[in-house]
Amino acid sequence: MKKILLLGIALCLLPLGSLLAQAVNHKAHSVFLYNFVRYAEWPANAPDNEVIRFGVLGKSGVFDELDEVLKVKTVNGKKCLVERITDPSKVGFYHIIFVADGESGKLADLLAAIGSRPTLVVTERDNLVRKGAAISFMVSDDNKLQFQLNDQVLTSRNIQLAASLRSMAQPMR
C-alpha cells in the first residue's frame, strides 16, 4: 500500500517538476535576452533609441519573465519595454524580437516584415541562424542554455555585439 501511495505522489509531482524546469528555462532565456541588449550597439539612426523595445512573438513564459525584469532594469540609462507580437507580418520597430519555439514557422514572414531595420531576431529553436535569425538558442548535451550567432545577419542589420558576448557563441552547425 505504501508503494502505491508513494508512486501516486511521485506521479502527481511530475508535472510540477516539469513546470518548475520550464520556469527556470524562461528565466534563463530572459536573462540572455536582456544581456544581448546590454552588449549590443545599434546604429545612431535606429528608430526610437530613447526606449529599448523588446518583442515576443508567440505565447511564452519568456514574456512574463522579461516583463518582470524590465520593470526594474534599464540599459545604458534607457527605459525598456516588452510587448507581445501577434502578427509577424505587421511588426513595428523593436530592438530585439524573441521568436518562441511554437512560432518558428513564422520566421520568414517576420524577417520579410522587418526588412533591413536594425532588429536583433533571436529564436528559441536552434539552428534558425541558418534561416536568417541573428541568434538562435540551443541546449547543450549537459542541458546548458547556449546560443549561436549569424555574423552576416548582424553585419547586414548594422548591429554590433561586444567581443565578450561573441566569444560565448557556439559555432553554427
From TrEMBL:
It comes from the Bacteria. It holds the Pfam family DUF4154. InterPro entries: YfiR/HmsC-like. This is DUF4154 domain-containing protein. Residues 1-23 form the signal peptide. Keywords: Signal. It comes from Cesiribacter andamanensis AMV16.
